């Protein structure tokens, strides 16, 4: 048993820290730090800075721009990104479709898509969920029927995050309706400018526009855009979702926000005299959250220190479950710290109230999604009960 | 950074598991053992001594084996898995620990040598009525007349105090601060009244009335810091004992859900129950992470960080122990309430461990006082 990082890993951490805090534009990092919405341009610019240095897609195969890092180094990279307020490389590109194309795609698909995906020249959207296929993904109904050299796609996808910026969408479609529902699914890559494809915004409870519906009406997709073989889409989805769960607990970002919140609490007057942070009830909430985040961070370190062959550790469901619960709890604390100022979500920048307080409630409301996406927390409990406890 | 144990540590774990696991996997045997004084099996204690387990934390010059906190924690975890009633935590880690930290070379050699050999089981008499896990003694006072020291006041509860061969008694010093004294069981003016606790262990009320005691270490020296250190080490060891008990409680509960039939199906058919087990697993893994980290911080030798880490581990484990202990009984249903069935005794033991050296709210309060002094926590200390 030993606490410290090895000298090499400690040096690696310093190197990441230096790069992220000096090479990524300050304006972008300030936007993240202040919890403001990033523009498409900012996300793209940040990822290109990382990609130029080989730091955008470290989990990919080395020949496609990945790094031959240990799980611990990938973890350090991810934590330091969050610590420095650098936007995480777009998950749809870096964690989802990139590794899928690298693993399942033909050489032609790899050449055509991977460099542009790493550099965010293509902005990918995810087309998995449907109105009747959320956690029960295999129930999807969007169809793709082969017609000559094309597939003809019809149906509807939903919860397509940032689909308004998407250039291409990776979709799961039903190619064989006759077999068991998991067996007849394929993955198609679809150009979002194709005729018959429509993106419609969904307004959310925080007032923002983040997710969309995507409709397909006789959309013709060249058959060469099929990933892997026909009808192996379920295997691809499992591979992709397994990757997604790793790193889904935003420990670094949640820690940073809790530390910022401490600053907010020091600046507010408490209800019983002194600063708000000196209120014992407030202080104890900070300690409870800080301790649970410590436990979560250490659990993540245990997982990466002992993950073999890059396979997700069985306890990674703990990270998703607890990580999102804590992310939500910290956002809830921030609303409570803001107090009456939390009501002023509609006020502009000339408001007398601080920006963090005005943004606190929309952020809190928005983050209710965290325990739903990426395999809802109930799905994670099911995974723990079945695969770890054998129930 | 490395959370794993080396081969020697693994071998120690297997040896201890082999010994105590074999005996106390028969829960009825534990029950019979705790029914009669001294509340544990003296033959088992002798076997632990033979195995070298009782001398693990002490230096070789003092008769011990000079192992580190990691080895002590491994033993505690294995004892916790079977809720072995032997007083390893209180006699070795606390009473022995204070002698090791503050005793003169002669005192260390004599007390720790005999403790390591299994010949002497000391008890730490520190808690006082009205005190709440303070490292200071207040109501028991020490007075000096030349070189002769006497103690007066009441200590309670003193874990395994009634049958202990030596009492290590803390007391307020005439010039301020807290000292510690070795008190022989037949000392004048000493009376002890033992009783069983809800977890099957033993404690005593110890009344001192002008009782002679030998100062531990230099006479008149304030040992508050040493007592605090020993309590912090004890907290971290107690966390590991609790981890063993929690891990077993979860295994037993999962096993029960798979075998117990109600309404014609096994209980694991009901999602309401399996989800609660999943949450128990989450609590256990988070607690395990912090307890292992606190142990590693302790091994770095940084006193201040170790104290903070002990409080954080104790807070996390306290919350987890209550959650897991309460749910273990609930998911077992009525059988979990019976003394014949093991699971309820695990909850009892976890409750005792929670209150021995400071419960979750106690540590939460300590940490809340200093929460404004740092921005965030870096477990690697960089």
Automatic annotation (TrEMBL), chain A:
Residues 127-219 form the Acyl-CoA oxidase/dehydrogenase middle domain. GO terms for cellular component: plasma membrane. It holds the Pfam family Acyl-CoA_dh_M. One of its GO terms (molecular function) is oxidoreductase activity, acting on the CH-CH group of donors. It comes from the Bacteria. Its cofactor is FAD. InterPro entries: Acyl-CoA_Oxase/DH_mid-dom, Acyl-CoA_Oxase/DH_mid-dom_sf, AcylCo_DH-like_C, AcylCo_DH/oxidase_C, AcylCoA_DH/ox_N, AcylCoA_DH/ox_N_sf, AcylCoA_DH/oxidase_NM_dom_sf, Mycobact_Acyl-CoA_DH. Keywords: FAD, Flavoprotein, Oxidoreductase. Residues 233-388 form the Acyl-CoA dehydrogenase/oxidase C-terminal domain. Residues 7-119 form the Acyl-CoA dehydrogenase/oxidase N-terminal domain. Belongs to the acyl-CoA dehydrogenase family. This is Acyl-CoA dehydrogenase. It comes from Nocardioides perillae. The lineage of its organism: Bacteria, Bacillati, Actinomycetota, Actinomycetes, Propionibacteriales.
From TrEMBL, chain B:
Residues 7-119 form the Acyl-CoA dehydrogenase/oxidase N-terminal domain. This is Acyl-CoA dehydrogenase. It comes from the Bacteria. Its cofactor is FAD. Gene3D superfamilies: Acyl-CoA dehydrogenase/oxidase, N-terminal domain, Butyryl-CoA Dehydrogenase, subunit A, domain 2, Butyryl-CoA Dehydrogenase, subunit A, domain 3. Residues 227-370 form the Acyl-CoA dehydrogenase/oxidase C-terminal domain. CDD domains: ACAD. Belongs to the acyl-CoA dehydrogenase family. GO terms for molecular function: acyl-CoA dehydrogenase activity; flavin adenine dinucleotide binding. Keywords: FAD, Flavoprotein, Oxidoreductase. The keyword Zinc-finger does not apply.
């Amino acid at each position: 048993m030993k606490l410290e990082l090895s000298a090499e890993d400690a040096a690696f951490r310093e190197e990441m820290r230096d790069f992220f805090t000096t090479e990524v534009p300050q304006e972008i990092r300030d936007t993240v730090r202040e919890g403001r919405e990033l523009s498409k341009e900012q996300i793209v610019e940040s990822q290109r800075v990382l990609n130029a240095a080989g730091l955008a897609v470290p989990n990919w195969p080395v020949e496609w721009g990945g790094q031959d890092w240990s799980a611990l180094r990938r973890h350090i990279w991810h934590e330091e990104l969050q610590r420095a307020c650098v936007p995480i490389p777009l998950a749809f590109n870096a964690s989802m479709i990139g590794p899928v194309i690298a693993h399942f795609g033909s050489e032609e698909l790899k050449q055509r898509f991977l460099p542009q995906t790493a550099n965010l020249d293509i902005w990918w959207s995810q087309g998995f969920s449907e109105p009747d296929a959320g956690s029960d993904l295999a129930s999807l109904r969007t169809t793709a029927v082969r017609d000559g050299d094309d597939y003809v796609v019809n149906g509807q996808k939903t919860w397509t995050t940032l689909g308004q910026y998407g250039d291409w969408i990776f979709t799961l479609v039903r190619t064989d309706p006759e077999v068991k529902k998991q067996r007849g699914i394929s993955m198609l890559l679809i150009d979002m400018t194709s005729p018959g494809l429509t993106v419609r915004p969904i307004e959310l409870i925080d007032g923002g526009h983040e997710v969309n519906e995507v409709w397909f009406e006789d959309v013709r997709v060249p058959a060469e855009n099929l990933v892997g073989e026909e009808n192996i889409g379920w295997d691809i989805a499992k591979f992709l979702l397994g990757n997604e769960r790793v790193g889904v607990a935003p420990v670094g970002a949640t820690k940073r926000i809790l530390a910022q919140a401490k600053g907010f609490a020091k600046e507010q007057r408490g209800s019983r005299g002194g600063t708000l942070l000196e209120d014992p009830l407030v202080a104890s909430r900070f300690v409870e959250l800080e301790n649970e985040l410590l436990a979560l961070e250490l659990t993540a370190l245990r997982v990466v220190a002992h993950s073999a062959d890059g396979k997700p550790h069985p306890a990674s469901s703990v990270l998703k479950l607890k990580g999102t619960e804590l992310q939500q709890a910290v956002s809830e604390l921030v609303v409570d710290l803001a107090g009456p100022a939390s009501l002023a979500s509609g006020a502009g920048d000339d408001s007398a109230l601080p920006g963090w307080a005005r943004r606190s409630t929309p952020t809190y409301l928005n983050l209710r999604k965290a325990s739903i996406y990426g395999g809802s927390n109930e799905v994670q409990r099911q995974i723990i009960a079945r695969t770890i406890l054998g129930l | 950074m490395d959370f794993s144990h080396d081969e020697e540590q693994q071998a120690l774990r297997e040896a201890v598991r082999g010994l105590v696991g074999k005996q106390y996997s028969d829960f009825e045997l534990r029950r019979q053992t705790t029914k009669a004084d001294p509340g544990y099996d003296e033959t088992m204690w002798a076997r632990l001594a033979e195995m070298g387990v009782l001398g693990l934390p002490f230096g070789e010059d003092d008769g011990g084996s000079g192992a580190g906190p990691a080895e002590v924690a491994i033993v505690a975890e294995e004892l916790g898995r079977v809720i072995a009633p032997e007083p390893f935590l209180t006699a070795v880690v606390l009473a022995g620990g204070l002698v090791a930290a503050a005793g003169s070379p002669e005192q260390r050699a004599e007390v720790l040598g005999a403790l390591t050999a299994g010949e002497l089981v000391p008890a730490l008499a520190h808690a006082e009525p009205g005190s709440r896990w303070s490292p200071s003694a207040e109501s028991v006072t020490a007075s000096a007349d030349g070189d002769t020291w006497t103690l007066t006041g009441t200590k309670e509860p003193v874990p395994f105090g009634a049958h202990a061969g030596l009492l290590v008694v803390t007391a307020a010093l005439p010039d301020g601060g807290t000292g510690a004294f070795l008190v022989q069981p037949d000392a004048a003016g000493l009376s002890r009244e033992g009783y069983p606790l809800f977890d099957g262990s033993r404690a005593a009320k110890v009344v001192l009335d002008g009782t002679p005691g030998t100062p531990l270490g230099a006479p008149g020296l304030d040992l508050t810091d040493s007592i605090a250190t020993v309590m912090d080490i004890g907290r971290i060891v107690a966390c590991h004992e609790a981890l063993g008990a929690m891990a077993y409680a979860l295994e037993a509960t999962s096993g029960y859900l798979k075998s117990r039939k109600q309404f014609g199906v096994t209980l694991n058919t009901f999602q309401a129950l399996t989800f609660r087990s999943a949450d128990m697993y989450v609590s256990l893994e988070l607690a395990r992470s912090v307890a292992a980290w606190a142990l590693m911080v302790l091994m770095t030798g940084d006193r201040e960080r170790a104290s903070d880490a002990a409080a954080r581990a104790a807070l996390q484990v306290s919350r987890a122990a209550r959650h897991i202990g309460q749910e273990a009984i609930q998911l077992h249903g009525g059988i979990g309430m019976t003394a014949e069935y093991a699971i309820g005794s695990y909850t009892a033991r976890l409750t005792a461990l929670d209150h021995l050296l400071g419960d979750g709210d106690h540590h939460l309060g300590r940490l809340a006082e200093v929460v404004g002094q740092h921005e965030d926590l870096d477990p690697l200390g960089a």
